[in-house]
């Protein structure tokens, strides 16, 4: 792929949206999609900038058509994908689908191995705007390097004649932070997230450079921890996808939800809601539409926060800092189940804050004047987000 056709840098963060998998599994259908579209409007998600309605595994029939084309499951999607895409587009939104680089998807529907160009053309004809492309499919498919398998669909999408955003879902195996961003617009940096805020035993990879021996059971905190090592690879258009947001799927305290959303936003992961919107609480809806936090995710500079090891205490307080278009942002995360006070000195974080105009904590809206040092009180699992306006 030549670099000029690669990516339009920061705009591509704009495929924030919703995806079916974590809430519905394979039990996804046309009326769920249409209700979701409706709720996107009524809950203010569309106005907040969420745009993509993505259907994960389970949308297709178990067999291709006799002449080898992918087809939607006709019971679940009686009107077919092209009509559904028209419907989603008519509401000013975009539509995503799911495919797989192997012979079969993870739920044993047809994969695209050997059918890449044909399937990309099908997606283009249907009017699909986004493709999540997975890593299942059995031994025969896995003998090829992921760059080859995922690269084949990238090439096919380019040939399809439609602008289709491409999300590589290779579970963080084989170090996709070194190659995934050159093939797709994003790459999954870990195995499957589950509805768990903190889980030290699930998800084989707790750090980036461990052996990738398993892919399931990641939690919000394991994915944050893994990003400590790989945030350095985030550059505009080459985004690590931290997987769907689990907000709404389990009982998380408001502080846990804020932590989840803050890190996904500040680390420039796509913000992909993954819950049943009909049951989402007002509190969680307000959190997911918080303009200041979404602005961090969409910041035009396209830089991430990075872990500041020297200011952090392992297993207790994590300090992250980064640059934004009009200043800096500093995150303080209390990893403990009890309240802690942490005195942060912005000067000691390697930030150039000469000319500081003001400090504001984004979740509370509280202003701290031009303070260079703040003694912050952190509730259990809370993350405070200080914006340093310059
Ligand atoms: C894999 C992916 C998940 C989901 C399922 C669907 O596990 O990593 O995100 O798409 O497959 O079967």
Task: Describe the secondary structure blueprint for this structure.
Layout: E1 17-19, H1 21-24, H2 30-42, E2 52-54, H3 80-90, E3 94-100, H4 116-126, E4 130-134, H5 139-142, H6 146-159, E5 165-168, H7 180-183, E6 186-188, H8 220-230, E7 239-241, H9 254-266, E8 272-273, H10 282-288, H11 291-297, E9 306-307, E10 317-324, E11 327-334, E12 340-345, E13 358-361, E14 373-378, E15 383-389
Parallel strand pairs: 1-2, 1-8, 2-3, 3-4, 4-5, 5-6, 6-7
Antiparallel strand pairs: 9-10, 10-11, 11-15, 12-14, 13-15
The structure holds alpha-D-galactopyranose.
Can you tell me about this structure?
- By secondary structure, the chain is of the alpha/beta class.
- It has 2 domains: 17-297, TIM Barrel, CATH 3.20.20.70; 306-389, Immunoglobulin-like, CATH 2.60.40.1180.
- 25% of the residues lie in helices and 18% in strands.
- It has 11 helices and 15 strands.
- The strands form 3 sheets. The chain has an 8-stranded parallel sheet with strand order 7-6-5-4-3-2-1-8.
- The longest helix has 14 residues, at 146-159.
- It starts with 16 loop residues before the first strand and ends with a strand.
- Bound molecules: alpha-D-galactopyranose (GLA).
- Alpha-D-galactopyranose is lined by residues 21, 56-57, 98, 105-107, 134, 169, 171, 192.
Bound molecules: alpha-D-galactopyranose
Helix percentage range = 25-40%
Structural class given helices, strands, pairing?
alpha/beta
What's the tally of helices? 11
Sequence stretches where pLDDT stays below 50 over 5 or more residues: 1-11
Could you give the count of β-strands?
Answer: 15
Dominant shape: globular
Q: Write down the domain tally.
A: 2
Q: Any idea of the CATH topology of the largest domain?
A: TIM Barrel
- As a percent range, the share of strand residues is 15-25%
Distance between the termini: 38 Å
The CATH architecture of the largest domain is Alpha-Beta Barrel
Write down the overall mean pLDDT: 91
Written as H for each helix and E for each strand, in order along the chain, the element string is: EHHEHEHEHHEHEHEHEHHEEEEEEE
- In the sheet with the most strands, the strands line up as 7-6-5-4-3-2-1-8
Reported for the largest beta sheet, the result is: 8 strands, parallel
């Amino acid at each position: 792929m030549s670099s000029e056709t690669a990516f339009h840098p920061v705009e591509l963060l704009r495929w924030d949206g919703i995806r079916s998998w974590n809430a519905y599994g394979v039990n996804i259908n046309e009326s769920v999609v249409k209700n979701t579209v409706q709720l996107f409007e009524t809950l203010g998600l569309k106005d907040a900038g969420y745009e993509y309605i993505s259907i994960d595994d389970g949308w297709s029939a178990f067999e291709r058509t006799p002449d080898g084309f992918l087809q939607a499951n006709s019971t679940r999607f009686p009107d077919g994908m092209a009509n559904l895409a028209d419907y989603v587009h008519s509401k000013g939104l975009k539509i995503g689908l799911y495919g797989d680089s192997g012979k079969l998807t993870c739920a044993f529907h047809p994969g695209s191995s050997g059918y890449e160009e044909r399937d990309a053309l099908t997606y283009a004809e249907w009017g699909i705007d986004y493709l999540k492309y997975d890593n299942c499919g059995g031994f025969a498919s896995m003998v090829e390097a992921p760059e080859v398998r995922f690269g084949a669909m990238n090439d096919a999408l380019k040939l399809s004649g439609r602008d289709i955003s491409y999300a590589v879902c290779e579970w963080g195996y084989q170090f996709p932070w070194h190659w995934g961003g050159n093939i797709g617009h994003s790459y999954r940096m870990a195995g499957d997230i589950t509805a768990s805020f903190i889980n030290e035993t699930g998800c084989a990879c707790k750090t980036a450079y461990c052996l990738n021996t398993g892919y399931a059971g990641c939690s919000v905190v394991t994915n944050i921890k893994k990003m400590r090592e790989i945030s350095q690879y985030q550059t505009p258009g080459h985004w690590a996808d931290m997987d769907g947001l689990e907000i709404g799927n389990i009982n998380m305290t408001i502080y846990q939800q804020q932590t989840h959303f803050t890190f996904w936003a500040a680390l420039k992961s796509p913000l992909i809601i993954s819950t049943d919107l009909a049951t989402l609480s007002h509190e969680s809806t307000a959190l997911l539409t918080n303009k200041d936090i979404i602005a961090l995710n969409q910041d035009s500079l396209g830089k991430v926060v990075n872990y500041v090891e020297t200011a952090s205490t392992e297993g207790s307080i994590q300090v992250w800092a980064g640059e934004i278009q009009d200043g800096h942002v500093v995150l303080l995360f209390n990893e403990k189940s009890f309240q802690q006070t942490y005195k942060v000195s912005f000067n000691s974080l390697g930030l150039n804050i000469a000319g500081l105009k003001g400090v504001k904590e984004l979740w509370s809206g509280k202003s701290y004047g031009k303070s260079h040092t703040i003694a912050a009180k952190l509730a259990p699992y809370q993350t405070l987000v200080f914006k340093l306006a310059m």
